[in-house]
Write a structure and sequence with these properties.
By secondary structure, this protein is mostly helical. The chain folds into 2 domains: about 60 residues; about 110 residues, Arc Repressor Mutant, subunit A. The chain is about 75% helix and about 0% strand. The radius of gyration is 24 Å and the shape is elongated. The chain starts with a helix and ends with a helix.
Length: about 180
């Protein structure tokens, strides 16, 4: 079953469950008016509604951002010290730059501390620093905007200011500069 069809099915299921819950509460469905049964029935329908809603949201998110699940897994892998595709990509980039790349697992805190050292003398504002961190981690402008709840055009302006302040001209130059700590 396709994701779009599953989304429609879950949406229809949610509407049916809400309708049944309302009819149940009005007493039109179910003959017993025992308070315990009414409360348990309402709770059961409420849990079913919550489950269907969560599934609907997940399917909708996967339709909108098909690779997001993979990126989240890669981020968790990177943070836990494993070698992810992102790390392999960094290794390939650094080999192109003629640098030695350390495959030793590094903690999130170590990577962030190195990032802060490399950017401390550049005069970045707090928001530019947030954008720069996500930029360094390989996020696209759209992903940065979604993560920080700002417009993509605003992200572009921040990226432009970051490039000016750090005297770089591309994402690759930016990442190399941060990695070198200069």
């Amino acid at each position: 079953m396709g994701k779009q069809a599953l989304r429609w099915l879950l949406g229809a299921g949610y509407v049916v469950l809400v309708t049944v819950l309302l009819l149940y509460q009005m007493g039109l469905v179910g003959k017993s008016r025992n308070t315990v049964i009414v409360v348990l029935g309402t709770l059961l329908l409420g849990v079913a509604l919550a489950v269907v809603l969560v599934l609907y949201i997940r399917v909708t998110d996967q339709i909108r951002n098909p690779g997001e699940t993979v990126r989240k897994i890669q981020r968790k892998d990177t943070l836990s010290g494993g070698i992810s595709e992102e790390k392999e990509k960094q290794e390939a980039e650094s080999q192109e730059d003629g640098q030695d790349f350390n495959l030793e697992p590094r903690s999130y805190e170590e990577v962030y501390a190195d990032f802060l050292k490399a950017t401390q003398d550049c005069g970045l504002s707090e928001r530019e620093l947030e954008v720069a961190w996500l930029l360094y981690r390989g996020y696209t402008n759209r992903q940065i905007g979604e993560e920080l709840y700002i417009a993509e055009t605003t992200v572009k302006k921040h990226v432009s200011h970051i490039y000016q302040k750090m005297e770089v001209y591309s994402r690759k130059d930016f990442r190399v500069r941060v990695r070198m700590g200069k």
